[in-house]
Amino acid sequence: MPILDIQNLSKSYRQAGGENTVAIGNISCQVEAGEFVSFVGPSGCGKTTLLMTIAGLLAPTEGRVSVNGKEVSGPPPNLVLLFQEYNKSLFAWRTVLGNVRFGLEARGDHSPAAAAKARSLLELVGLKGFEKHYPWELSGGMQQRVAIARALAYEPQVLLMDEPFGSLDALTRLELEDTLLKLWTQLKTTILFITHDIEEAIYLSDRIWVLSRRPSHIIEELKIDFARPRDQVTTRAQARFMELRNAIYRQIGNR
Alpha helix (H) ranges present in 164-213? Predict the structure, then answer.
């Protein structure tokens, strides 16, 4: 059984004049436990709407989403959604450690072991020594590391990520891609990743679904078979990498 099963999913919005805007056309796909899979598509194709529907924050117009065989009718307890605007999701009045502990406190764990776990996660994301800082004292990349650590503290089976590195500078983005892959390898969390960056999707993923323009549907599924661990220089330098990048770009651009 796949951990995430999306069947004939569509989502429409009714406008003030009574007309419907169809954001998601008809999407069906499955994600296996432990996979890293991505959606890419043109701007405005409904990627965020898709992720929020999968997360149970929006009700589908048609179709269904199931996690571990159970249909989603609200936010599932074993799934976490990490938004792009990380700086708005962190609590400015709580320290870095306090923010990460919130993920554990939300599960009712206020024990000393929870604090130790939060410290361990901060070390994993490269923020050891910043436990007593506040989010507004950190760079954007460091704030996103806090947000990732807090999401992982909740121990989700499935982590949904909505363009989490989109607002970061190029170098910080590459560093966080490698940090995310390290965490994924160690923690075995299933990740569904939304991005508009084709090369980022290729570098990170086991599989990629290419979306059409709105109303979005899956144009193609691509298996990414580069060996792991991957390297920002040698992996991206392979001829096959650019072949995939150009093929996806043409798929999106031609539509």
Answer: 170-187, 198-204
What pTM was computed for the model?
0.91
Identify whether the C-beta of residue 62 lies closer than 8 Å to the C-beta of residue 9: yes
C-alpha distances in Å from residue 68, one per residue of 30, 73, 161? 11, 13, 19
Domain boundaries, the chain: 85-155
pLDDT at residue 221 above 80? yes
Token digits of residue 195: 């991005």
Instruction: Return the H-helix or E-strand segment holding 218.
Output: strand 216-223
Q: Measured between alpha carbons, how far is 187 from 56 in angstroms, rounded to an integer?
A: 24
pLDDT in tens, 82-124: 887 766 789 999 999 999 998 788 777 788 888 898 999 999 8
pLDDT above 80 (res 42): yes
Please answer whether residues 147 and 86 qualify as being in contact, where contact means their C-beta atoms are separated by less than 8 angstroms.
Answer: yes
Class of residue 81 by CB neighbours under 10 A (exposed 0-12, middle 13-18, buried 19+): buried
Neighbouring CB atoms inside 10 A of 248's CB total 21
Q: What is the DSSP letter of 129?
A: T
